[in-house]
Design brief:
Chain lengths: 243, 243, 243, 243
């Protein structure tokens, strides 16, 4: 399985606080804990040529993890089209946190993906609402994060195929913070936590969910649909009789 | 309730067979049967200025019905954006038949919306799989159409929120031919039948389904979500204690 | 439309605090506000013969509202069977609050319907997560109840067909507090609020949701499926050719 | 992973034609092809004590496959209760063909699970409608069975969480023939084919789907929900301030 962690990697350069928390970038931190499980991981970032997402790389990628925030608009439309095509062909996608507003996520959802937000160092508690889902393997009834950014409903997404986590926030809001979608042959997992100013991606339970997510979105060898004009599989003869 | 029936209205001009079946256009035929129920209906077509979809009209439209086929690409992107915005704001949308490939439907779905097809004068039988759904009111276990174009799976759409009809085709295929989606405040109904060379929209059961669909997608006065930065509804005080 | 409000009506008899809040019983309070909308309402209670649910009444009932709590086990199994049959035939069902543990709701869900709970006079805030749903008509982004019993996840229900409300509780939990299901021809709405020691059913927004729910679960004249051995609709002749 | 294949095993004893096709019983045939994949399989049948489903066996079973048809009523209710409890605790369940009418499947669904049927040696074609689903791994666009019993809609089940296969039948019907459900911690897969008088379980594609299903319903180490009275996770202090 080939995993690519894509990161905007801008906060890390402009905000010393973020750079201190994630000295190797958010992509670096995510790649590190995935590699613990002998997963083959590459990283790519916005400021590389083609944002690091060459055709060669995309074609061999099984799972793409996406983190972006303040430069969504700088992601080139042709790259978004290529990623979109690959998802429909079966490449798994994990959209993390502020990737809710990324071009690729919005294109796959068909909605604005807008939400409420607040930075107030408040507690988030992610409750498991589907304990049958493999993405919850190895974690407890809930994950508690002492300080996170708040994302609140209404979250303008299609009704998820599967709703796995619902967040409680200290300031009074709730949020559908773990949800899955199917698009074409591709599987998509949106997972809310991970504001750049908190060390969320070092949390072992959050890491476990992302690892589980990588396994879950990875889609091996399912059927390739055929589209377009199709010959009949059965004789169409009765109509003459009826006439 | 204000309903607008939008039609490409090109086959009617170029193909005498279609013109004979639908002398007032497909939009005219649909408007006629809706008006039987005292529904206020307007029509709009591709070749009008702004495709007949002015801001004024769109803003007062509760339900938009869309039929298009061979000129999807001629629909201007800015009009698609406006229709998309109105759907998210709560305008109901009914996409008929080949509107599966319309820009607006594809944008709302996030997928290619591709499928198999064949024109072979074959029987279609639409089976009701959700007899609790108001869209099935007044019809029987299935609707049989003696001759229709075939649409076959795989249909590249997100898993429908509600699957209402499944079609059987004489040539050996099946199709999810009646399905609903929610996007923002808007409700969407996709309904398969209605190839331009068949008199499908004169079928009383098909008319009944579309009438039911109009009622079902019409969304009255549901909450307007507020997005963006949000003040807390509860005091966020505990964090200082914890530190 | 004929609506029946069924209530256990035991707390009202044994707990003076409840009797003071609901002098005509919870069923009486619910019937009263429904009647404001010219809905035809009857009530039935546990201690009546057949719990007030005669065959005649059930057969003419379009929507049944159910409130029960401490005497679920006293509801006779044959009455539960009759209600179950009527739901599958198309009678709408609204299960309120502690009716999550009623025999009829558990039978329709197929799960334990267990949950977390706490009586601590805490704030509940019901957030709308599906602003396209008619059950949310006329209310705001959320409904706030100053004091309610807490119900917390995990709520052991099947994934709802539609999730409409998610509750935030002051003590740190969340809950899927408004959800819908389809079973046979019947539509079901579960709505969480309404602990007997709080005046929740006098809240205008809660009343609005229940009124909307009544309209939504009411199912008029959808198809009656035919089951059992079925003659073919098409000739089955090809097999001989193949052999 | 421990798999148990449960079979009624009555047709095999009373119908020589079935005995000839399945000399080791349907359970034997299924166990055989699962063992090709180094899966640890046991079998159990109706006429054994406790139908072969002892507490010890159930407690160590990860996945239970169920085939029954003419003796559903002979399955003891207490055994059904035990199987139900184990499913909610996380044991995967695959219900095959006529198990749609088994006590355990009906209890988990909450509906009659009724359908249309016909034995007429007709062609079934199972179309993949969700090519992102791991249960479709390794198969083509559709599976064709030359002769099978027909099952037709309406199939009285709750709307599936995931619909994977839709069947076309020569005689004119369609059927939701591969669907999944979640109940508690348990995952459920219903798969239609497998009438006792046809050699369906020797079909390599059908075997592949069942093998994929076994992997998919197997649920490892997801969270164990805690139910009942719960202490608050946050201080509930504000109410006094408000009063």
């Amino acid at each position: 399985m080939n995993v690519v962690v894509w990161n905007e990697n801008r906060h890390e350069k402009s905000n010393p606080m973020v750079a201190e928390i994630y000295p190797n970038g958010i992509h670096g931190a995510i790649a590190e804990f995935l590699e613990e499980d002998q997963i083959h991981v590459k990283t790519a970032t916005l400021d590389e040529e083609d944002h690091g997402l060459t055709d060669e790389l995309l074609n061999e990628t099984d799972v793409l993890i996406w983190w972006g925030h303040k430069a969504h608009d700088e992601v080139k439309d042709d790259i978004v089209e290529k990623v979109h095509k690959r998802v429909l062909e079966g490449m798994g996608l994990i959209a993390l946190h502020s990737a809710h507003f990324s071009k690729i996520f919005k294109k796959l959802m068909g909605t604005t993906c807008d939400l409420k937000w607040r930075e107030a160092d408040e507690t988030e508690r992610l409750w498991v609402v589907d304990p049958s889902h493999p993405i919850t393997e190895g974690i407890g009834e809930y994950i508690e994060l002492e300080k996170e950014e708040m994302y609140g409903e209404h979250f303008d997404i299609p009704a998820p195929d599967q709703l796995i986590f619902m967040s409680w926030f200290e300031g009074g809001e709730v949020f559908r913070s773990g949800s899955t979608y199917q698009r074409g042959k591709g599987k998509i997992f949106y997972f809310r936590p991970g504001h750049e100013t908190y060390p969320t991606y070092y949390n072992k339970e959050i890491q476990r969910v992302i690892k589980n997510g990588v396994k879950w979105v990875n889609n091996v060898n399912t059927p390739a649909p055929v589209y377009g004009n199709a010959k009949p599989l059965e004789e169409i003869t009765k109509k003459q009789v009826k006439q």
